Give the backbone structure.
Amino acid sequence: MSDTQWQAPGINSKAELLAQATIMLDEMVERYEMYADQMEVANNPEATKLFIWLTEKQSQRSAIVKQLSAGLKLPHIKPWNYNWDDAVNLQTQDNHVAHYLMQPYQVLALAIHVEESAITFFNDVATETADPEVTRIAIEIAKDAHVFADVLKKKQRQYPEPEPGWDDDPDPPLVQE
Amino acid sequence: MATIPQTGIKPSISIAILGSGGSGVMTTGSLLLDVAGRAGWYGMMTRSAGPQIRGGEAAALLRLSPQPTETHKDHFDVLLALDWLNADRFVSEVDLNAQSLVIGDEGKVMPGAIAGLSGNHFELPLSGTAKSIKGGRINMVALGALAAMIGLTLEDVIKVLTQSLQRKGPEAINASISGIQAGSHIVDSLPALPTIGAAQATGRNRWSITGNEATGLGAIRGGIRFVAAYPITPATEVLEWMAPTLQKVGGVLVQAEDELASINHLIGSSFGGTPSMTATSGPGLSLMTESIGLAVASETPLVIVDVMRGGPSTGIPTKSEQSDLNIALYGLHGDAPHLVVAPNSVGDCVFTTQWATHLAETLQTACIMLSDQFMGQTRAIIDRPADIAFVSGGRQLASKPDVYFRYAVNDSGISPMSLPGTPDGQYTGDGLEHSPSGTPSSRADDHIQQLDKRKRKLDQFNYGDHWALTEGSGEMAVITWGSSTGAVQEALATLRAQGQEVRLVSLRLLSPIQPERLQRALQGVRRILVVEQCHGAQFYHYLRAFYQLPGVVKSMAIPGPLMIKPSDIYHELQSWESV
Amino acid sequence: MMETATSCTPMKPKDYKSGVKPVWCPGCGDFSVLMALTKALAEMRLAAEQVALISGIGCSSRLPAYLNVYGFHSVHGRALPVATGLKIARPDLTVLAAGGDGDGFSIGGNHFMHSCRRNVDITYIVMDNQVYGMTKGQASPTTDPDWDHSKLTPGGTKVNPYYPLVIALASGANFIARASSSDPNGAAKVIVDAIRHPGFSFVHILSPCITFRPEQRDWKKMVRPAPVEATSNPVTAAHRLMTDDNFFLGTLYKGNRPPYQPDLTPVIDDLSSIEKDFEL
């Protein structure tokens, strides 16, 4: 769905919040992994390395959220009830960096975008919920995302911003079947 | 034309029944064949017709004999016409000799083309007799006449008639019986026909069956439980017989939107584990070739029956020709080793289709079976084809694999197949070249490994004695295949009766080639005649390309639509002999 | 549909993926369709070995290899007949077919029509990007007539595009929906509904080709949910299609025609009664 229709879900229990956060983080892991695979297939080792690094980082964060859920029975949430798709959906961003020649700067820009969307999402959850426990955890997750976003930004500064024409390829696409 | 000396070959009587649509020519022929079969004779009937969907002219061509027979002889003993309308179109198909009886309806003018043929001409009051009976029909009068002429008892005729006309009610049956009775009395004035010996007592083991039905039965015996097809002449009867039969045995026949769909339906059902078959003719086979290649590459078992007709293009749909050999052997793009088999008689359609299924399932590939219009649409009285049970083989299934590789490379070349539903056996079947796991691969080593494997499994398999029908001895041999076999056998029987030994090799397995087996079969042979019903001598060129043939080799390649006659082969061999 | 064996333990989308890495271009919409499909299967808790995905040829037809279900990658245009044969012979399986617009509507167009008509219980997912990606960007049946980026059709095809939903409805598909790869979760819902609905289900997924049709990135801004619920009335559905601009998402039509599935129960256990017919 487009941004205009996006709404923070009203989350009113710790279990519900953790269920959503878990799926969200797991999906991020999966998407970074997919990107790593794509970059590997496209012979872009720098981007591959960064996506693998992102996959690992994201997995660690996912594990922490799962620890928080220990002993709780998390509700099942159907994919179409997530409502936060834009925050995590790397493939469908309508930016032009989703490209086989993408550079580390752009990989990190994607990840920063993800974290910033997550910050907005969890802050919204925190303000809209009636449950103080949910507010507390949501703010914590948002803070964590903030910290990670800062790490990403710092890392991004190590790489140059791509020059115009970064996606020029003198060779035409290959003919397959 | 000179005739074959009657001594030594099977005594038989050949009858041609002609008439316009609506006159009941085919019914007369079928009933006569059945009655003869009941009386203990063997026999066969083919049909010939004009291009009209209904109406038009038709001919039922019968041959009856105390011995099994699957070829017409060189002349007809009796030509009986219910009417003469357009009968001249059959002149090329109905050869007569000086002794032949040519019988027409009283007062009707025989066409010039027929009158010009040799034979003794007679008139019988066929329509007149029919008109004198309430509800009487001319074809029943003719049936009575013909039965009486060849010595079938009225009692036998009535028994068969009553059975086959059951649905029409007692009134129709009684009218028919009256017609037959009356017909049997109008032939007293005719000269006697040559006697063909006493009929053997018949047991339960005598069948009346067409090649197309036999093909269907062989498929069912072989375990085929899924058929998808598009109607096409002359293969449709295979499908018509199979559709209700499959329902009984827990199978299904799907009428697809086209041949592209039908062949791919089979790939789906066979991928799911069900032995699957289609029946088609040349144009349909042409459309199917891309996906037959897919079956080869993805190692999906399937059977494709091609009931051949005259080609190319739409060609002559209602007439036979053995001219699809090339497309069956070489029609697939790429190096695509597959099986090509051919039955050599109506009865052999049962065995060969069953065998085709067994081979396709065992070797996980496509098997094309080449039948033809003549064999497919001939109705023959034969001994019940034996039950064959293949003790080993069949589709090798993967059981509880740890790590499953669908296209694992091994010595036999046959990789166990995992069927959908089997846990941990998931794989993707592919027509793209693939690695042993099934993942698409364009690597040279994967390609050579998989090419080798797909060839190896066919080359190493032991096809046993089924590869060919071999008969006789001597320094002269005839190599043939498919429905030409019957004519060759009859020609050779004549030569043998004259003291000339000739070998017969009729190939049932056309691909993969069996050079060592053929070499053994031809040991000591100095002259070979290659007989086929094909203008381009496709079979001859195939033999020349892949086999070491000893001595002098001659090609006798005659196109359809006329069947090769035993006498043609006899004269070819005899003239060669006298050189 | 006839529910096939399901798993008792919760399934994750990832459980349905094979280890094979896609050859698609990064940014391709088909990645989202892959995600949507694995989400749908996980949501239905279908045992992976009870599912078969059949495809033809094209970029999107590479899909089966990326899933951990049974797959068959057939030849160009023939996904539907293969899937049909499989489902008829093995009604216990959940059978899916997938491919692109060229595969499904051009070379396989006749099968599309007849599969809608036959109404076998399979779900057909077409990833439409209005271009032939695998052969370097030629026009497909759904390409606009003035798209002139292919050397094969200088100045554009000048041929009217094909409307898959219209054909599907006219040919008798029992379930017709459109989804977008920009919303894989919404697509997952549509796929679940399609699989659950008996008979032939057609899911049209807008899935941009960022290599040959980079302008399709804008599709994300153009798609929107259809403002109405699915109908079981083909007349209503036909009326809606009159004003469809190709970007309305959701389920258009849910018919109630019974699926084609022959009974495969044997009624005899040996062939003697069959052979008796040949005896004289």
Notes: Chain C has nine helices and eight strands. Chain C has one domain: 18-276. The two ends of chain C are 47 Å apart (CA to CA).
